[in-house]
Amino acid sequence: MKQKVLMIVTSHNMLGSTGKPTGLYLSELAHPYEVLVEAGCDITVASPKGGDAPIDPGSIASEIEKYALLAKNTKALHTIKPEDYDAYLVVGGHGTMWDLAFNADLNRILPAAFAQGKVVAAVCHGPVALTHLKNPDGAFMIRNKKVTGFTNEEEFAAGLTKVMPFLLEDELIKAGAAYLKKPNWAANVVVDGNLVTGQNPASAKGVGEAVASLLCVEEVK
After folding, report:
1. Helix or strand or coil: residue 7?
2. Bridge partner residues of 42 (DSSP)
3. Residue 176 sits in a domain of what CATH number?
């Protein structure tokens, strides 16, 4: 039976009060998707609102443009149950910073799935979805877990430090995680048990490979 993976994307399409469009970062959807499909996984894409998810226009490169179709007609998170999938992978993009950090459906789904031994993964800004998740005992799910995510330095280099509602690195540390980072734009994938996180877009393929490995399917080189 194929392993089932739910890839979670943002429904938020505006970059703060700048008036500029944002959304999911397409390579962070495309690269893990390629790896996981080649490894034989069955992929579904979901978002908070369901339907067509916004894509950051700056992330649409010709070689991955075809994967924009994956953002069409996504499932709504409220329809998802923790036991529905073998792995959950949160795709990045600046839109996540507004609608995934305090998402009630993710708080219902991901800690329960994680406790069941399902793989929980996130890349770039996607780890924002993990920052406020709590276990049944009230403790943060990522407390004392090794994680990574888009760094303060990378946000500064992108010129968006003051646009973000908060900084991802700071929020991961506030949740009690052991935050690990590499220099700007260097690939960095951190695995702690069944938790997988990637620092930036360059880490997206590696996150997909780590998820495939944890699912005990053939890892794609």
Report:
1. strand
2. 4
3. 3.40.50.880
* Residues in the chain, pLDDT under 70: 217-221
Q: What is the pLDDT of residue 217?
A: 60
Q: Indicate whether 92 belongs to any domain.
A: yes
Cα four-point dihedral sign 8, 11, 16, 20: positive
Per the structure block, which two tokens stand in for 177? Answer: 């995680």
The SS3 assignment for 5 reads: strand
Torsion of CA 164, 170, 171, 173, to 10 degrees: 170
**What is the pLDDT, as a whole number, of residue 216?**
85
Q: Is position 80 within any domain?
A: yes
Neighbours of 114 (CB within 10 A): 22
How many domains is the chain partitioned into structurally? 1
pLDDT confidence of residue 136: 87
Residue 199, domain extent: 4-214
pLDDT at position 220 is 43
Residue 132 in contact with residue 175, Cβ under 8 Å?
yes
Burial of 18 (0-12, 13-18, 19+ CB in 10 A): exposed
- Sequential DSSP letters for 93-148: -TTHHHHTTT-HHHHHHHHHHHHTT-EEEEETTGGGGGTT-B-TTS-BTTTT-EE-
Query: Does a structural domain hold residue 50?
Result: yes
pLDDT of amino acid 194: 98
Q: Angle of helix 26-38 relative to helix 204-214, nearest 10 degrees? A: 30
